[in-house]
Each structure stands twice: as structure tokens, then as C-alpha cells.
Write a structure and sequence with these properties.
By secondary structure, the protein is mainly beta. Helix content is 7%, strand content 22%. The strands form two sheets. Strands 1, 2, 5, 8 and 9 form a five-stranded mixed beta sheet that branches.
Length: 313
């Protein structure tokens, strides 16, 4: 099996209905980003946030916490656009942080941190870690991104608990499915361009429907990485819990042209009094050859890395 084709016999669940259409390679023009990042409310957005507005005592399920993985680095920058020129299908994320212990009220001022790999499976700070299968070296992408900071960043939640990020659809690496890491921090403050202090209330991962991911991976530059892609049903971290386990609601910007980008929505239900750093928590497995050993690379954003004791990422 390659990164461009899947064995349908092992795909056992779907989270969203995927619209069909012609796949057009490339299409990553500025106009695509403008469309993907339009600040408008959609049916998907309304659906994704409906659970957070419930008046029931439970309001929604507390998010499932998982490992932070071995690719975490302290010192990510506070910024909306984390791409730094990395090529890929545009992805805008709209995440809403709510307090499940208080009727799902918005958590204003919460800092949401995300990080993920590029289209070929490489993480900033660890650009020599082999993503598995066959992929060009990260240095062959020819972009101007900072190898210590690309595709990492914080945003601070507004009065409605909402943060937005502009990024690209992540690639994959063996043995993991396509994913984005996420932490929710409270009690700290923005300082020197990053977020300092406070505590981590949630460490999780954002995940993608198999059919959408595998369609994206037929496009350039994703198609440059081939090998065994892990579907959701076989992933070592995803537990099948749907939104409470990080499965995004996705909406195509142009239904007949996936290269134009996607919007992703999710409500993150947290307990502001709890702490979950993700260090050493579940989801074992062996990272790809060349994965980090706990020592930050030269030129990393800070002097201290915080890799999980678990091997998965």
C-alpha cells in the first residue's frame, strides 16, 4: 500500500460525509488561502459548536487527553499563520475552548498551541527524522521556512473562547495517521512573542477523516511521500471517540477541488482546574528512524525540549 492509495478492507469508520469531484493538483495560490480563511459562519461551523451551547448539565464530554509525542518544543510563537511558506493544501482551524465544569462557558484568554508535520512528514526542529516510506529530504522542499519554528504556534482565545489558525493540511509518517498536536494552556501570559507560565489543561491531537486525507495525499507536494499510510481504525492513538477524541469537522472550500483547501472545526471541552501535560501518557509505539531522543536540535526556539516519555507522536 502506498501513501496515495488505501486498502478499503481495513477502513471501518467515517466521521463525515465526503463530497466527490475532480482532484486538481497544486492550486495553492493566494486566492485559495483567502477563500479558506474567510471569516464567515457556515453550516459545518454551527454543527461543530452546537454541543458547546447545550443547556444540559453535562453540556459535552471532556476531551480525551493523549501523549504530546516526541516532537514537542517549548517556545512556539503567538501567531495566527504558522505556515512560514510551507507548501500544502490550505487549512484553517477554528477551535473553541469551553469549560465543561461550568456549563460549557467560553474560556476567554486560554492559549491554544498546535504543532504538526509538513506535507512530507517532517517536523520543524527535527527535520532529519525519517518519516517512513519514501520521501525526499526536507531540505529539498526549497522553501524559506525556519527549520526550528515552522508549523508551530499559539493563539489566545477571544471572549467567545475561539482561536483561529492558518496552516496547511498535515502530511503523515509511519506508523501514525494524519494528525495535529494541540495543548490548551490557562493562567499564563504572552511574553517575548510566546506564551509563558500557567498550566496545561489539555494535551490532545486533532484528527482527519480517512477519505479526505487520502484524497489530499494524491496532490502535490504530498504525493512525493509514498509508503504505508495508517488509517484511523489502525492508529495507535485514536480511540474511536469522535469529536471528544479530536476528530475534526471538515468543510471543503470548493467541493470539486480539494486543492483549494479545507476548514476544520472542533470544540475543546476542558477542566480549567485540571492539568494534563501529555508527558508520559498512553499511546505507545515506535517512532520513525531518526526521531528525537530528548535533546533539542541546534537553533530550536528555546534551550529546553519537552518530549514525552511515550514513543508515539
Amino acid at each position: 500500500m502506498t501513501g496515495n492509495h488505501r486498502d478499503t478492507s481495513i477502513t471501518r469508520r467515517r466521521a463525515i460525509a465526503v463530497t466527490g469531484g475532480t482532484v486538481v493538483a497544486g492550486g495553492l495560490a493566494v486566492a485559495g488561502y483567502r477563500s479558506a480563511f474567510a471569516d464567515t459562519t457556515t453550516d459545518a461551523e454551527a454543527s461543530a459548536t452546537a454541543s458547546a451551547t447545550s443547556t444540559s448539565s453535562g453540556c459535552m464530554t471532556l476531551m480525551t487527553g493523549v501523549t504530546e509525542g516526541p516532537y514537542y518544543l517549548d517556545g512556539a510563537l503567538v501567531r495566527k499563520d504558522i505556515t512560514e511558506g510551507k507548501a500544502g493544501v490550505p487549512l484553517t482551524l477554528r477551535l473553541t475552548v469551553v469549560d465543561v465544569t461550568d456549563g460549557c462557558t467560553p474560556v476567554s484568554g486560554a492559549a491554544v498551541e498546535i504543532w504538526h508535520c509538513d506535507a512530507w512528514g517532517y517536523y520543524s526542529g527535527y527535520t532529519t527524522a525519517n518519516p517512513g516510506g519514501s520521501a525526499p529530504a526536507e531540505s529539498e522542499e526549497g522553501d524559506s521556512a525556519n527549520d526550528s519554528t515552522y508549523l508551530r504556534g499559539y493563539q489566545i482565545a477571544n471572549a467567545n473562547g475561539v482561536v483561529k489558525f492558518e496552516t496547511i493540511f498535515p502530511g503523515w509518517y509511519t506508523p501514525r495517521t494524519c494528525h495535529i498536536h494541540v495543548k490548551v494552556h490557562t493562567g499564563g501570559e504572552k511574553e517575548d512573542g510566546t506564551y509563558e507560565g500557567g498550566k496545561v489543561n489539555h494535551t490532545g491531537q486533532l484528527l482527519f477523516d480517512d477519505a479526505v486525507a487520502e484524497e489530499i495525499f494524491t496532490l502535490d507536494p504530498y504525493s512525493g511521500h509514498t509508503g504505508s499510510y495508517t488509517v484511523l481504525a489502525d492508529d495507535m492513538v485514536y480511540d474511536g471517540g469522535g469529536a471528544s477524541s479530536g476528530l475534526l469537522t471538515l468543510e471543503a472550500v470548493h467541493k470539486k477541488d480539494p486543492s483549494k483547501g479545507y476548514k476544520g472545526f472542533l470544540t475543546l471541552g476542558i477542566d480549567p482546574d485540571a492539568e494534563n501535560t501529555g508527558a508520559g501518557s498512553g499511546g505507545g509505539g515506535t517512532p520513525p528512524s531518526g526521531a528525537p531522543t530528548g535533546t533539542p536540535p541546534s537553533g530550536a526556539p528555546t534551550d529546553t525540549a519537552s518530549p514525552s516519555a511515550s514513543a508515539s507522536s
